[in-house]
Design a protein that fits this description.
Order of helices and strands: EHEHEHEHEHHHHHH
Largest sheet: 5 strands, parallel
Number of domains: 2
Helix content: 40-55%
Shape: globular
CATH class of the largest domain: Alpha Beta
Distance between the termini: 37 Å
Strand content: 5-15%
Number of strands: 5
Number of helices: 10
Oligomer: single chain
Length: about 200
């Protein structure tokens, strides 16, 4: 049974594959419950799009290039009222749904599912629900990254993307000393001594 919505759900899309973009454009256009507002091929483009034209729900791939879904989730979740994100991916790793939940995603849908599953997931997320396959939640709390604050996660994702402290400060609109403070705190929480160690832990988590 279709989830009813009172008005079209405004959707933003980010996927590196033009074929997936075209397929989702067609899929969403055929269902009056949804309105596709913008499409992006990279993390930065998607984040720029949602800043300029907010949406209700975002659908993103997991590996978009040069970053991944964690980068988008961490940046959005540092905001006051982040949009709800569905990760739609062909990555079959059992760890991906856990990482999506850990980093604040609203839902996970495999590209191997029928298209109708994605449509119903969009409507369910818009209605305030989270949609995931079975996850052993103990694995979430075993992750050392779960001890970081939203801002620390945002800084760490920027470090993993190759940004310098100065670039992070400019991007976040804070002082260089504030960035250094966050970096020092996240190092202590993760038990590491360098940004390379922190990034390695981030990528493995």
């Amino acid at each position: 049974m279709k989830e009813r919505v009172s008005k079209p759900v405004r959707v933003g899309l980010a996927d590196k594959n033009p074929l997936i973009q075209a397929a989702l454009k067609q899929l969403l256009s055929e269902d009056g419950r949804f309105q596709l507002v913008h499409v992006a091929s990279s993390c930065e483009e998607f984040l720029k799009n949602v800043r300029q034209e907010p949406v209700d729900v975002g659908i993103i791939g997991w590996i978009i290039g040069p970053c991944d879904g964690r980068f988008i989730l961490d940046r959005l979740n540092a905001q006051e009222n982040p949009i709800r994100i569905i990760v739609y991916t062909g990555d079959e790793s059992k760890m991906v749904p856990t990482q999506v939940m850990t980093h604040g995603g609203a839902a996970f849908v495999s590209k191997s599912e029928q298209p109708a599953i994605l449509l119903e997931t969009i409507a369910a997320v818009f209605a305030g629900r989270m949609v995931f396959p079975y996850i052993d939640v103990r694995t979430i709390y075993d992750n050392p990254l779960s001890t970081l604050t939203r801002r620390e996660m945002e800084v760490l994702s920027d470090l993993a993307a190759g940004r310098t402290n100065k670039q992070i400060a400019r991007e976040l609109g804070v002082s260089l000393n504030t960035v250094k403070f966050h970096v020092r705190n996240l190092f202590q929480k993760l038990g590491v001594n360098s940004r390379s160690q922190a990034i390695s832990m981030y990528l493995r988590s």
